[in-house]
Design goal:
39% helix; alpha+beta; 4 helices; globular; 152 residues
């Protein structure tokens, strides 16, 4: 979806999340899977449900393999300043976010913390922060990504 408007990407990724959730819901009951396999399906289903919360803006989503996702905080289309949180190579859909005392050790928590700090430091500046979870390099042709920088 490179180059597609972000609002279209958000809608398309919500649709993809719903489809992936339906697949994982079936897998949680699949007796052909091991107990651990059904548990992994449940964890993925819970993550997909969390990403479907009304206030979430999912810029990228792919459930295949370990999966990847990118979430936007702020208005990416209008942002003057864009930051991208890319925490490391061992990040995937299941490690995208955490709850409890370790909330800021996952990409979404890091991005929320950075977004809050940027808004506090420069309240009048239109800011967006992207939480990225995948081992891949970020590549996109949109102006916002170009402003944020590219992998070489």
């Amino acid at each position: 979806m490179n180059g597609a408007p972000v609002t279209l990407r958000y809608r398309a990724n919500r649709h993809a999340l719903m489809q992936a959730g339906a697949v994982e819901q079936q897998r949680t009951q699949d007796t052909a899977l091991s107990r651990d396999g059904r548990h992994q399906a449940l964890l993925r289903l819970e993550r997909f449900r969390s990403l479907l919360a009304k206030d979430r803006q999912i810029l990228a989503f792919d459930p295949s393999g370990r999966g990847h996702a990118a979430e936007v905080l702020g208005d990416l289309d209008r942002a003057e300043r864009v930051s991208v949180v890319v925490p490391g190579v061992d990040t995937n859909l299941l490690t995208l976010e955490r709850t409890g005392p370790k909330v800021n050790t996952a990409p979404v928590g890091m991005a929320r913390s950075l977004y809050g700090a940027e808004r506090a430091a420069r309240p009048g500046t239109r800011t967006a922060v992207i939480a990225w979870a995948d081992e891949m390099c970020i590549r996109d042709s949109s102006a916002a990504w170009r402003r944020a920088g590219r992998c070489g």
